[in-house]
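The instructor's notes for this session suggest beginning with a concrete chain rather than abstract definitions. Hand out the sequence below and ask the class to guess, before any prediction is shown, which regions might be ordered.
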Amino acid sequence: MYLYIVDSCAQNKKFQRDLLHIQARIQDLGITGRFEKLTMLKSIQDIVHDAERKGVRTIVAIGSDKTVNAIISHLTDNTITLGLIPLGEEKNSIADALNIPYGEAACAILSKRIIKKLDLGKVNGRYFFSSLSIPASQNTKVECDKSYFLKTTGMAPIKIINFCDNGYRGNAQDGKLEAVVEETEHRGFFSFLKTRATSVRNSIIPAKNIFVKNSEESVPIYSGNDVMVKTPATIEIVPKKLRIIAGT
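After discussion, reveal the predicted structure:
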């Protein structure tokens, strides 16, 4: 049984023809199911939990990276398989990384049903797929595998990457997360005026378990633009937790 969740970004009038073509192609391929559109009164959390109660075996996100990550964050049943039909104007880096084409063409990938088992991250009991972002602060302490500490000047956010995030690409099959700080260094006598060239220094630590706390306050940890939890937070890798349909 398939459940298709249509995100708000795919419900714009300019995508209505695309959505109709997708529905027709799904019918032709024999992978029909129930369609649910996100509204102010119907959240992804409600739809996902209802699907789990009803024994849905495949949930397909029609939308963007945000749609996929939101669905995953509310999954509790690891026997559910996730599919993706990218549609809309928001980022679709997950689809690109999984070799899934845009719009109607993605339906053929769904019908072939090539399933990959990928790692998920887990923060304070909630799953995430792509990455997390922790706001810049000199008071934030990041401990990796109880052995290493990630230092920052407080000028850049800290990212915890599992799969992909704005140019960074993690390996969601290696059983590790990557804690990343990207900081810009201003060089030269006039660096305080920010008129000279800058360079970027990356600090990257692979880890299975990460603990984050702030000595002054409880700070938010984001998945995209959404707050998932606040510090203190325990972040861990869960190997091969996600079943996802991918391209060749």
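Then share the key points. The helical segments are 16-29, 44-53, 65-74, 93-97, 106-112. The domain at 2-113 is CATH 3.40.50.10330 (Rossmann fold).
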